[in-house]
Amino acid sequence: MVALSSVFFCSPPEAQAIDECKDSSGNIANIISGSICATATGSYGDIAPIGSPDGKLNISDAVVTLRISLGLISNLDTTITQKADLAPLCLKSDSSYTKSGDGTIEISDAVVLLRLALGLVDPTTVAWASQPGLKFDVTGATSLQAMDSLVVKTMQQGQEKPSILHYRVVDGEHQTRAAGSVGTNLIAVNADGTSRLAIQSDLPAKVMYTAASPDQTYVYVALDPTISQTLMAQENCALYRIKIADNTKSCVMEGVYLQDFDDTFKKKFGGFKPIQFDDKGSLYFAGSAFSKSGTTIDKGSWKPIIYQNDAASGKNTAITNDALQIKFFMILSTGELVYQGANVINGVEVTVQTPS
């Protein structure tokens, strides 16, 4: 048994085995070679050199983590601090470990890294969790509010669980995690006036706007492609459909980010948003392709296409093409799609179309 200050006896949820931890033969990979649990942002613990990790877990990673914990290195991308957050390791009854992480970078994280690098803790006994990804919490909310700034949950002194959510505003893409989140601007408001964060993520999750389906079964959430670009790169998604009853989520269309709900759009169409529905419940949105670029995304130039997401099948169909620069669109109560676009041949034109 390994005794170390950053290992605790606890009863975390049983960690699930993940395929990333195994090589092509099904064997657990060797963390010393930097190949264990490689995720979209690299191996857990492998943060040195900063900006270009070497693919190995060694003493230099522990030294960098120690400097972060002492405040000697700051303003780091959240993907770096996420990989360094290893403590506490929970020792289970079968003498294996579960990496828990507590949302902060402390000396205990450097100790865990050092023990792993020196082979004092066998990495094959650790249940390395995959990236926690994105979770929604909208069930029971009477409304969703997308604020201007990212916020994290705080606790008032003397309160174990606040009845009303208290915020701390965080700005920029480089967030310090608190209360299990690096910040979101999406707030779920309950009938009694209390509120909560509607998104939990280890990466900044800023929402541009939301829209509920006509039958109130789903809510659709469009991510901001600037502040949320690291999350978008990890998930390859910017538009989610969340089932209100149980918070299950699905990506409406991968590799596409949506039109901004800016002042120009609001002045043109008032209460209409860039995601709309027809009388059958099918979804319409204007989106442009993005590609992954390391831990962020490359948005390229804005070349929106209007898509229909069929309510029955979930199939996405392109209604326009990228030769037409879409400015605005609207679904009429009669089911027709009206959109304004421009091309080099005809200039600006307005089209009325009845989608199939």
The succession of helices and strands, N to C, reads EHHEEHEEEEEEEEEHEEEHEEEEEEEEE
Distance between the termini: 66 Å
Number of strands: 24
Shape: elongated
In percent, how helical is the residue content? 10-25%
- Mean pLDDT metric: 74
By secondary-structure content and strand pairing, the structural class works out as: mainly beta
In short:
With 356 residues, the protein is mainly beta. It has helices at 59-69, 78-84, 107-117, 229-235, 263-269; strands spanning 7-9, 89-91, 97-99, 126-127, 134-136, 143-154, 166-170, 184-189, 195-197, 199-201, 207-212, 218-223, 239-243, 249-251, 256-258, 275-277, 283-289, 291-293, 296-298, 305-309, 316-318, 325-331, 337-343, 347-353.
Quickly list its features.
5 helices; disordered N terminus; elongated; mainly beta; 31% strand; 24 strands; 356 residues; 5-stranded antiparallel β-sheet; 4-stranded mixed β-sheet
Describe it.
The structure is a single chain. By secondary structure, the chain is mainly beta. Helices cover 12% and strands 31% of the residues. It is built from five helices and 24 strands. The protein has helices at residues 59-69, 78-84, 107-117, 229-235, 263-269, and strands at 7-9, 89-91, 97-99, 126-127, 134-136, 143-154, 166-170, 184-189, 195-197, 199-201, 207-212, 218-223, 239-243, 249-251, 256-258, 275-277, 283-289, 291-293, 296-298, 305-309, 316-318, 325-331, 337-343, 347-353. The strands form seven sheets. Strands 15, 16, 17, 20 and 21 form a five-stranded antiparallel beta sheet that branches. A hairpin with a 5-residue loop joins strand 16 and strand 17. Helix 1 runs antiparallel to helix 3 (107-117). The longest helix has 11 residues, at 59-69. It starts with 6 loop residues before the first strand and ends with a strand.
